[in-house]
Design goal:
The complex is a heterodimer of chains A (about 350) and B (about 325). With about 350 residues, chain A is mainly α. Chain A has 14 helices and no strands. Chain B has about 325 residues and is mainly α. Chain B has a domain of about 230 residues: MetI-like fold (Orthogonal Bundle). Chain B contains 14 helices and no strands. The radius of gyration of chain B is 25 Å and the shape is globular. Classes of the chains: A mainly alpha (about 350), B mainly alpha (about 325).
Chain lengths: ~350, ~325
C-alpha cells in the first residue's frame, strides 16, 4: 500500500520494504489506460494488418470517411471553412435549364456520374449523403457494441440471478424479428436525427453479441490469471476492464463492423421504401434510389438506370469494405493461425461469429 | 423435459411481450395510431362526439380509447388470445386474420425454396472450398462470396428485375402466378407459381449463400485439422465415408442454428423484397399497411411474423439437441 508503514517491523522481523511489490500495484490511471489500449487495440491491429483483406477493407472505409469529410467541409459554416466548397451541394437545375436533366454518367467533369431527372448532380448527392450515412452507421455500431458488452460481461461475470434474468431478456430480444420491429417503431416514432436512426435500425442486435460475450466471459473468468486477480482483492470492474475486456476486443470489433453493415442495409432499404421520413435527395443513398425508382422510373427506362446504379454502387462499396475488414480479423480469433505467424492468409472462421453475423 | 417446458414458456413470453409492445405503440404513444385515427375521423364527421369517435376507432383497431388503459389492455390481449387480430382499414370488410391466411403460404413458399438453395449452395461450395484450401478455386470463391454478401438483397432484386425481367424478358416482372390461371392443383398453376418465384428467391439466394459458404468452409477446415480425422484416415476408411460422416456432419452441426435463424431474417427481408416484386405475401401486406397507415393490419402481420420466428427458433433449439447429443449435456455446464 503506502510506504508510511515501512518503518514498522513486520512479524517476521523484516521491514515493510520487502512487500514493496504491493506499491507497484498502484499504477497511474493514464498508464493503465495506455496498457489497456496497447493490449486491446494495438496488438490485435498489428496482427490483423498482415491480412490483405484487412488492408483493403480499411482503405475502402477510409475512403468513405474522406468523402464524408469533403462533404462536411463543403457544407460547413464554421469560420474559414464557410468559404471552402469542394463539392457543391446538389440542387434542382443547378447547371441551368432542362437540357441538363437526365444526363448520363462520364460525359462532363461538372457531373461525372450524371444528373437526375431534375438536373441534380448525382456525384455531389452521393458525397453529401455520406456524413449522415456515416453518423448513422457509427451510432448504430456503437450502440450494439456498448449494450452487448455491458449486458454480456455483467451477466457472465456476476452469474446467478442477474445472469438468468439478463439471459432471458436477451433470448427474448433475439427472437423478436428485427426488421418488422424496426419498421413498426420507425413508423410510430418517426425519427429524424441520424444518431437516433442508427441505433433504432439495429435495436435488437445486441442480443446475439451479448450471448457470445457472456460465454467468452464464462470461460475467461475460470482462467488462473483472473483467479489470481480476484484473490489479490482487485475490484470486479477492474478485473473486467483489465483481464477480460482485452480478450473480447476482437469479437467486439467484428460485431461493430457487422452491425454497421446491418445499419446500412436496413437504413438504405427503409429510406428506399420511404418508411423513414426524408428531407431531400441527398439525405441518404436510399432516398436517391427511391427518387430514381419512383420519380425517374429508372428501372423501366434503360437510359436512366445509372440513376439507380450509382447510389447502389456506393452502398455495396461501403459494405464490401466493412465485410472485408471483419473477415480480416479472423486471425485474431484463431490462436492456431496466430501462433504460426507465417503471414500467409489462412482463413478460419469462428462459428460463434458466424451465428451472430447471420442474425437480423 | 423441464428444459422443453422452459423453452416453450420463453417462446410464449416473447409473443406476449411483442403483443404488449404493439398495444403500447397503438394506445399509449402520444399522437399514436389511436389518436391519429380519431383525429382523421373527426375531420370527416365533425358532428360526432369524442366518445362516439372513440367507439368507432375501437371497432377498427381493437383498442378502446374510452376505457382506462389497463381494461383496454386486458381486452386487447383477450381478443388476440381468441385469434382475433382486428379488421383491416383499407380492405374494409376483410379481417386481418383473413388477409394473413391468404398471404402467409406464399411467403413460406418463397422462403422454403430460397432456404433449400442457400443450403445446397452454401454447404456444397463451402465444403469444396475447404477441401481445396488455398487453391485458386478457394481464393476466387471466397472473394465472390464476400462480395455477394455485401450486396443488399433488395439491390440484387432490382438488378435481377432490370436484367432478367425487363431487358431480356426471361422472367415475369411481378406477381405470384400467371394471370388468368385459377389456383388449384393443376400443372399450369404450379408451374406458373414456380416460374414466378424464381426471381424473388434468387435475390435471397445470391446474397446469402456466401455467408453460409464461408461459415461452412471455416468449420470444415477446423474439423479437417482434428486428430480423429487423421485416425480415421489411418484406419483406412473410405474417403467418401470420412467426408460425409466425419467432416460433413461435424461441420454442418454448428451452422444449424444460424440456418434456422435465417428464417427470421427472411421474414423481415420479405417486407422489402415482396414490395419490389409486388409479390403478395405477408411482407407485401405489411408494407402496404404502413403505406396506408392501416395499423391493425400492420400490428397483425408483425405479430404473426413474430409467432413464425418463435416457432422456427424453438424447432432449431429442440432439433439441435437431437442432432448433436453433446449439446444436451453441455447446456448444464453453463449455469454457474
Amino acid at each position: 500500500m503506502s510506504r508510511t508503514d515501512s518503518s514498522e517491523k513486520s512479524t517476521d522481523g523484516g521491514t515493510g520494504d520487502v512487500f514493496s511489490f504491493e506499491a507497484s500495484e498502484e499504477i497511474s490511471t493514464s498508464q493503465r489506460y495506455r496498457e489497456f489500449f496497447y493490449e486491446a487495440f494495438y496488438l490485435p491491429a498489428r496482427e490483423a494488418w498482415r491480412d490483405w483483406r484487412m488492408k483493403v477493407g480499411l482503405i475502402i472505409i477510409f475512403g468513405y470517411v474522406l468523402m464524408g469529410l469533403v462533404a462536411w467541409v463543403s457544407s460547413s459554416e464554421f469560420g474559414v471553412l464557410a468559404d471552402v466548397t469542394l463539392v457543391e451541394f446538389p440542387t434542382s437545375n443547378q447547371f441551368g435549364g432542362f437540357e441538363y436533366n437526365n444526363q448520363g454518367p462520364f460525359q462532363s467533369w461538372d457531373y461525372p456520374l450524371g444528373t437526375d431527372s431534375t438536373g441534380r448532380n448525382i456525384m455531389a448527392a452521393i458525397v453529401h449523403a455520406t456524413p449522415d450515412m456515416l453518423k448513422m452507421t457509427f451510432a448504430g455500431g456503437i450502440y450494439v457494441v456498448v449494450v452487448a458488452t455491458v449486458v454480456g460481461t455483467v451477466s457472465g461475470y456476476k452469474g446467478g440471478r442477474v445472469d438468468s434474468f439478463l439471459t432471458t431478456v436477451s433470448d427474448i430480444v433475439m427472437t423478436i424479428p428485427g426488421l418488422p420491429l424496426v419498421i413498426v417503431l420507425a413508423t410510430t416514432i418517426d425519427p429524424r436525427n441520424p444518431y437516433l436512426v442508427g441505433p433504432l435500425l439495429v435495436i435488437g442486435w445486441w442480443a446475439g453479441l451479448s450471448r457470445t460475450i457472456r460465454s467468452q466471459v464464462l470461460s475467461i473468468r475460470e482462467e488462473s490469471y483472473v483467479e489470481a486477480s480476484r484473490t489479490m482483492g482487485i475490484s470486479t470492474p477492474r478485473i473486467i476492464q483489465k483481464d477480460i475486456l482485452p480478450n473480447l476486443m476482437p469479437y467486439i470489433m467484428v460485431n461493430f463492423v457487422m452491425s454497421a453493415r446491418q445499419v446500412i442495409f436496413n437504413g438504405v432499404g427503409l429510406y428506399f421504401l420511404g418508411v423513414l421520413a426524408h428531407g431531400s435527395y441527398s439525405d441518404n443513398w436510399g432516398v436517391m434510389m427511391q427518387f430514381a425508382y419512383t420519380h425517374a422510373s429508372a428501372l423501366l427506362i434503360p437510359d436512366r438506370s445509372y440513376q439507380l446504379l450509382m447510389p447502389m454502387a456506393a452502398i455495396v462499396g461501403l459494405s464490401f469494405g466493412l465485410i472485408l475488414f471483419s473477415q480480416g480479423t479472423d486471425r485474431l480469433f484463431n490462436p492456431r493461425v496466430r501462433q504460426r505467424g507465417t503471414g500467409s492468409t489462412k482463413q478460419e472462421e469462428d462459428s460463434d461469429d458466424e451465428v451472430t453475423t447471420t442474425i437480423t | 423435459m423441464n428444459w422443453f417446458i422452459k423453452r416453450i414458456g420463453q417462446g410464449v413470453f416473447t409473443i406476449f411481450t411483442v403483443a404488449s409492445l404493439t398495444f403500447v405503440l397503438i394506445r399509449v404513444m402520444p399522437g399514436g395510431p389511436a389518436q391519429q385515427m380519431v383525429a382523421d375521423m373527426r375531420q370527416r364527421q365533425p358532428s360526432l362526439s369524442t366518445e362516439q369517435l372513440n367507439v368507432m376507432a375501437a371497432q377498427r383497431i381493437g383498442v378502446d380509447l374510452n376505457r382506462p388503459i389497463h381494461e383496454a389492455y386486458i381486452d386487447y390481449m383477450l381478443n388476440l388470445a381468441g385469434g382475433s387480430l382486428g379488421q383491416s382499414i383499407q380492405y374494409h370488410p376483410e379481417t386481418v386474420a383473413d388477409i394473413i391466411a391468404r398471404s402467409l403460404p406464399w411467403t413460406a413458399f418463397v422462403m422454403s425454396i430460397s432456404l433449400l438453395f442457400v443450403f445446397i449452395l452454401g454447404i456444397g461450395l463451402g465444403a469444396i472450398m475447404a477441401y481445396k484450401e488455398g487453391s485458386k478455386f478457394d481464393v476466387g470463391s471466397s472473394i465472390i462470396a464476400i462480395f455477394l454478401s455485401s450486396v443488399p438483397y433488395y439491390v440484387a432484386g432490382v438488378v435481377l428485375i432490370y436484367v432478367l425481367a425487363l431487358e431480356l424478358s426471361l422472367f415475369p416482372l411481378n406477381g405470384r402466378y400467371p394471370k388468368g390461371v385459377d389456383p388449384g392443383f393443376t400443372l399450369e398453376f404450379i408451374g406458373g407459381a414456380l416460374y414466378h418465384v424464381i426471381l424473388p428467391a434468387a435475390s435471397f439466394v445470391i446474397t446469402t449463400w456466401g455467408g453460409f459458404a464461408l461459415g461452412m468452409r471455416g468449420n470444415s477446415v477446423q474439423v479437417l485439422g482434428q486428430d480423429y480425422i487423421r485416425v480415421a484416415k489411418l484406419r483406412g476408411l473410405a474417403d467418401r465415408r470420412i467426408a460425409l460422416r466425419y467432416v460433413g456432419r461435424n461441420a454442418i452441426l454448428p451452422m444449424w442454428t444460424s440456418f434456422l435463424i435465417q428464417v427470421g431474417f427472411m421474414f423481415g427481408a420479405s417486407i422489402i423484397l415482396e414490395e419490389i416484386f409486388s409479390y403478395r405475401g405477408i411482407g407485401y401486406y405489411m408494407f402496404d399497411s404502413i403505406d396506408n397507415r392501416d395499423y391493425p393490419l400492420m400490428m397483425g402481420t408483425f405479430l404473426v411474423i413474430t409467432v413464425c420466428v418463435v416457432i422456427a427458433v424453438l424447432v432449431a433449439d429442440m432439433t439441435y439437441g437431437k442432432l448433436d447429443p453433446r449439446v444436451e449435456a453441455g447446456g448444464k455446464d453453463e449455469s454457474y
